[in-house]
Amino acid sequence: MDTPPDGYPVEIIGYVEPWIASPGSTINIKVSSTEPELKYHVVRLIHGPQGADTSGMRQEVITRTPHGKFTGRYQVAHPGSYAAIAERDYQVKSAGLEFTLYFQSHLPQAKHVQAIVSTLDASAKTGYAVVLTAVGAVEFWIGTGTAVEVISTGFKAALKRWIELRFTIQGIVFNYDIRPMPCFTDIPEPPSKGSRDLSHEADVSKPCILMFAATLARSPNEASLIATNFFNGRVDRPTMKSACSDGSVLAQWDFSRNMTSNNIVDVSGNGTGAEGQLINAPTRAVTGHDWDGMESDWTKAKHGYGAIHFHEDDLDDAAWETDFSINLAENLRSGVYAVEIESVNGEVRDTVPFYVHPTKTTSEELGAKVAYIISTITYLAYANEHVFDRTHLKDVVSSTWTAIPDKHAEKTVRRKDVGLSCYDIHNDRSGVIHSTAKRPILNMRPDYISWNFHRPRGLSADLLMLEFLERSGIPYDVVCDHDLHNYGKLGISRYGTIITGSHPEYHTVESLSAYADFIKAGGNVMYLGGNGFYWSCAIPYESSHRVEIRRGGEGIRSFTCPGGDRIFSSNGQSGLLWRSRGLSSNYLFGVGCCGEGPGPGVPYKRTDASKDAALAWMFEGISEDELLGEHGFGGGASGDEIDKCDYKIGSPYNTIVVATSTGHPDTFGMFPEDIVFPFQNVLGTQTGEVRSDVTYYESSGGGAVFSVGSINWFCSLGWNHFQNNIARLTGNVLKEFVRRHK
């Protein structure tokens, strides 16, 4: 059983699996607690925080759902990606074996051993392992049945340089050949070769578990029950042959096969069937040892994409034990729910969200006219983001941010085992490509306060709109991004109006197509956020709990993927900005992201166009000279990341700008994709291009799209308990859109 370190604070964290559920289904709740006695109940989240004040959040207790007590236990996740081939006999005869592979270290001096390939059973003293030592030197561990002999080479792997490694084991004779490869036209390090007689014959012919990028040995003489000593880097084209004169292939793995899956394929064709599984989602579709730079799309390349990039801090599934399960009612309405877990002594608690999507029956019973789209894909992208405390990021983190971590962010500091976000970088300084829902997501909490914007953000901000909808009395359903991805327009076709959250940044082809098809069919859209529909992403077919994000050389980003690594392994599509793919958000929503800044937001001022009598319904109860959104939990209503109307890049020509922000300070700047050479006049006071626009246009399908161009909008919407003109404007549009429903 796992135990917390000495002096560890009281803590409860958990997650729900699946995190998006259907009425009538069963959810499993997985909890880690320092406290032994816990109690729980289920609530529907219908209140957002008043800024940092969460005292007034009153959620709806679901009395039909079981509540109770259970015994707490401390649980940890085990990060580290690797490939594992289940135990099998490779038919290694007395002639011995020859093993070759290519590897590229991205963290040579990891301060711990890193296994490149291993069959070593340290308890039985059989098998072999190739490792990098703590200082990055290649070392071999060879089991003889009586001991594990260590063969040091003195060869140190260079950073990000491909190396061909070959070794043979024949009886007592061990040989190795290490050959660094040139990077295009540079001169590689000298090769290293060696031979040694073992004290006893190597015992490498027994059936074994084979691993790439990890081992089941903590050291040559200490076994581990779980994978350990993870490699940070790439492995390509491993091949096991007989060491006899005919050199028959015993197993050969081609990592370019089955690229979209979690499987690795043995292409030797000799019947050993050495297929394996990838654990904790290492990065596929990356350049290998023979990539020549002439083709950067793995779906078109004839060679060059046979590598997998492994990381010691990858995590795909925390794999915690289930503490209890809950059967959801068949007629449970859609919504954002949570399991509230509290220690019996009242010292500590956690609120663990999950989402229930609608069925045709629950939607009809409710009479839902509107769907509120929860940004579950974006929540995954930011899941457990804690750039502020990653020591090796200090040289790339903007000093303009003032880090004030809340209690949830503090948990991410001490619970590094629950993984990273797609805004972090790995210990080897490569970008985090995957994020998973199968773990506690500590910044997806109803009372989360952003460490850099110091206000509600993500789910906590989006709950403000849920509270607004509850107050409106208009029947609504909650639909997730993942529902749009899975069902397309069919998932929202029953509604007349759909409403986005505050930050719908990430979308797959499928989820964005659902919006496009809905608008074309005459649906109304209220885009009530900023930085929306910005990055493309992918969800693997076999692993719907995971999102894949690859960042190119444009856009606001915390890292840039190498030029050959920008095509999704999940589906072979381009992993760039939607704008770079040719579909800026302007085309569908009238606005596109143009700037951001850490400073307080500013209000909007109405335009002359807004005073047209045809738009009087929109501004009912709001005077013509009244500033919109002067106050909010993040300053004015235009702030954080902001969007503007731009006809040059796709805003429909009939888009009407009804309000625009009053001018941002120089703590705000333009997005790089809008900047042209020479780089000047890019800050808030220097250009009119850093602004939020509130826009409205009527579509060819007969519906309309209303957009506000700011993540801060909800923080002004909820200000003073919704007694403000942002709430009035939002309500006017919502009521008019509902009135128009066919």
Automatic annotation (TrEMBL):
It comes from the Eukaryota. It holds the Pfam family DMFA2_C. InterPro entries: DMFA2_C. Residues 283-723 form the N,N-dimethylformamidase beta subunit-like C-terminal domain. This is N,N-dimethylformamidase beta subunit-like C-terminal domain-containing protein. The lineage of its organism: Eukaryota, Fungi, Dikarya, Ascomycota, Pezizomycotina.
